[in-house]
Design goal:
Distance between the termini: 12 Å
CATH topology of the largest domain: Rossmann fold
Structural class: alpha/beta
Number of strands: 6
Bound molecules: magnesium ion
Strand order of the largest sheet: 3-2-1-4-5-6
Strand content: 5-15%
Helix content: 40-55%
CATH superfamily of the largest domain: HAD superfamily/HAD-like
Number of domains: 2
CATH class of the largest domain: Alpha Beta
């Protein structure tokens, strides 16, 4: 296996790279619907309504009406989506949507866990390289995740979409990360689970890109039997595809 020389900084994506966000989301939804689903509607039915509402609403999050509030707080879009799910279930109930939104946020956070090798890998890299996080999502939720997981102390640089007011895959995000670390692109590594958001833009910026793929990486909104994301046929390949964070170490440490 080739060893990378001259690396100065290693950036990680957070959700489904260091921690199991989709697993937490699925468990959080089930707990929230278990408590607050309208009478006569099962948890399974509510999950399906939520998934349909998610697919319908996701393209709107980046529109002018929703993106500004979304950057600061996950609450408005999360509650709107719950309201849409309830309407699909035949219950147009804003108060219940607010209760569901809050329960989902709290239970998802309670269910959030690092992958089993995350702490060992961060500990092994810490001190040898500068470490950073580049994560998309609202500022409040991303900060809460970092605190819940107790990993803030590992990182010299933390870039959050909500705080930068732009997110991956925008090239400006990667330029900003190089600037903060005073690293050249060829001294910089990105580790992420999304080919489109993490790896393709990192490779385009001249970084090394490690694409981490796991079976758990399927959103609750995906159609049944959906497989994890594939790489577009015409894309530049990642430096390597890995299945566990620990597979990074031989590339980076003698
Ligand atoms: Mg991710």
């Amino acid at each position: 296996m080739p060893h990378l020389n001259g690396i100065k900084v290693v950036y990680f994506d957070l959700d489904d790279t260091l921690c199991g966000y989709w697993n937490a989301s699925k468990a959080g939804l089930r707990r929230a619907f278990g408590e607050h689903a309208p009478e006569g509607v099962t948890v399974e039915e509510m999950v399906i309504h939520w998934a349909e509402a998610y697919r319908e609403f996701a393209p709107q999050v980046k529109t002018e009406r929703w993106y500004e509030p979304y950057l600061t707080s996950g609450e408005p879009t999360r509650t709107e989506q719950m309201h849409m799910a309830l309407r699909r279930a035949g219950h147009d109930d804003r108060t219940r949507a607010e209760a569901l939104s809050r329960a989902y946020m709290l239970y998802r956070d309670a269910e959030l866990q690092l992958f089993e090798d995350a702490i060992d890998v961060l500990t092994a890299l810490r001190g040898r390289f500068e470490l950073g996080l580049i994560t998309n999502g609202p500022a409040d939720i991303q900060r809460m995740e970092i605190a819940t997981l107790g990993i803030g102390q590992f990182f010299d640089h933390v870039f959050i979409e909500g705080e930068m007011r732009e997110g991956k895959p925008k090239p400006g995000v990667f330029a900003r990360a190089n600037e903060a670390a005073r690293s050249r692109p060829e001294e910089t590594v990105m580790v992420g689970n999304s080919f489109g958001h993490d790896i393709a833009p990192a490779i385009a910026a001249g970084w090394y890109g490690f694409w981490i793929r796991r079976d758990s990486d399927v959103p609750p909104s995906a159609h049944p039997n959906t497989k994890p994301e594939d790489r577009p046929a015409d894309s530049v390949p990642p430096t390597a595809t890995i299945n566990a964070l620990s597979e990074l170490l031989p590339w980076l440490i003698d």
